[in-house]
Amino acid sequence: MNEILLLVAGLLGGAVNSLAGGGSFIVFPALLFAGVPPVLANASNTYAALPGYVSGTVGYWSAMQAHKDKLVTYGLVAALFGYVGAELLLVVSDELFSLVVPWLMAFAVTLFVFGNRINAALRAGGGQKRGMKALGAVLILSLLAAVCVYGGFFNAGLGILLLAFLALAGMTDIHAMNGLKLYISSIVALVAVVRFAFNGSIDWYHGSIALVGVTIGGYAAARLAQYIPALWIRMSVIVYGIGMTGYFFWTTYFA
After folding, report:
1. Phi then psi dihedrals of residue 128, to 5 deg
2. Which of 89, 43, 21 is nearest to 210 (CA)?
3. For residue 166, which of 126, 115, 127, 229 has the smallest C-alpha distance?
4. Angle at which helices 71-89 and 130-153 cross, to 10°
C-alpha cells in the first residue's frame, strides 16, 4: 500500500508542479505517511521532484524561447543559492522552519496576484534612468536568490514562490513562466540532491517510487497545458495558493 500511495502521490504532485507549483505538498506528506522520518522525507521529496522538474521543463521548452536570455543568469543564481539552502537544512530543524512556511506562502500568493501591478509601478517610477533600472535588476535577482535558498532548504512551495518572482519580474505569459519556474526548480533541486546524497539524507527506495510518478505526471501535464486557457491556469494557481496558505496556517498554529 505504501508503494501505491507514493506512486499516485507522485503522479498528482508532478502534474501540480507543472501547472501551478506546490506538488511537494502532496508528495511530502505521502512520504511521512509511508513511515519516512521528517528530515529524510524532506530531502527525499526534493530528490523525487527533480526528474519531474526536468521533464516539465522539456515540455515547456518552446514557450520559454522568448526568454532564453534569462537562462544563464537565473541558472547561476539558482545553483549558488540552492546549495546555500541545502546547507541550511542540515543545521536547522524542520520544526523551526515550519513556523515560517505559512508566512512565506502568504507572501508568495500576494506577489503572484499583484506582481504585475507592482512591477508596472516600479517601471513608471523609475522612468528611463539607467541607475533605477540597475537597482531594479539587483533587487529582482536578490529576490530570486532568497527564493532559491528557500527551495534548497524546503522544496514545498517553491513553484508558487517562483511564479510570484516571475510575475514581479514583469512576465505575463503563464506558459513561459511555468517553463522558467521548472527550469530554476531543476537546478535548485539538483544541487540540493547532490548535497543531501553526500550527507546520506535521502531514502532512495521510497523516494524513487515517488520519483517515477512525479516524472510521468510532470511531463504529461506540461504537454497538455497549452490546451488550457492561461486565465484558467492563473486562477487555479491563485485558488490553490490561498488554499495551501490557509492549510499551513491552520496546521501550524491552530491544529
Report:
1. -110, 10
2. 43
3. 115
4. 40
Q: Given this model, what pLDDT does residue 120 score?
A: 62
Helix 24-33 to helix 2-19 angle (10° resolution) is: 170
**Closest to 17 (Cα-Cα) out of 67, 72, 57, 44:** 57
pLDDT for position 171: 83
* The model's pTM: 0.79
If you average pLDDT over residues 91-100, what whole number do you get? 81
DSSP per-residue letters across 110-177: HHHHHHHHHHHHHHHHHTT-HHHHHHHHHHHHHHHHHHHHHHHH--TTHHHHHHHHHHHTT---HHHH
pLDDT in tens, 42-58: 899 999 989 888 888 88
Q: Which three cell numbers stand for residue 141?
A: 535577482
Helix (H, G, I), strand (E, B) or coil at 70: helix
